[in-house]
Design goal:
By secondary structure, this protein is an alpha/beta fold. It has one domain: Nucleotidyltransferase, domain 5 (2-Layer Sandwich), CATH 3.30.420. It is 50% helix and 16% strand.
Length: 161
Amino acid sequence: MTVFSVDAPNAWSLMTEFKVHARGRVPTKKDIWGAWSDRWIDAIKAASQADIIGIEGVHIRSYGKEEPYIRTAKQRSALVLQRRAGIIEGLCRAYRPGVRIEIVDTGDWRKTNGLSEKWGRDRLKAAAIQRVKQLYGLTVTHDEADAILIGRHLAIVGGTE
């Protein structure tokens, strides 16, 4: 199974369980929003052999014992990320009609790849990078690592119908 996987708003991979065929990042600078969507369209079109598309789900979470202004800022950031993930999903549906799209829960793809939510953000990012290096021999950014591991998860479990 070939998977096109997305870690919104800026990383993607095209892969099978055992091989990463292509990967990349789409810059999200505020002055290039038109270019951002055009680059996503290019990546989606280039993934013509994908059997399934996986996009990481974005959830607004309650953040523990942090100050209220920090919790509010994180929740607002999650809303922006949700919007961008939705734009990417819409582009996938427009440019790859008929291809199944799965919204992949963060906990699910991390569990498939031997990562634990309890580790905390910094350790999880480092572990994802290391896992990709171990599995595929690639040196990647943490966003690309997440996209690759999302793709690996879908290649293994096959998604749901």
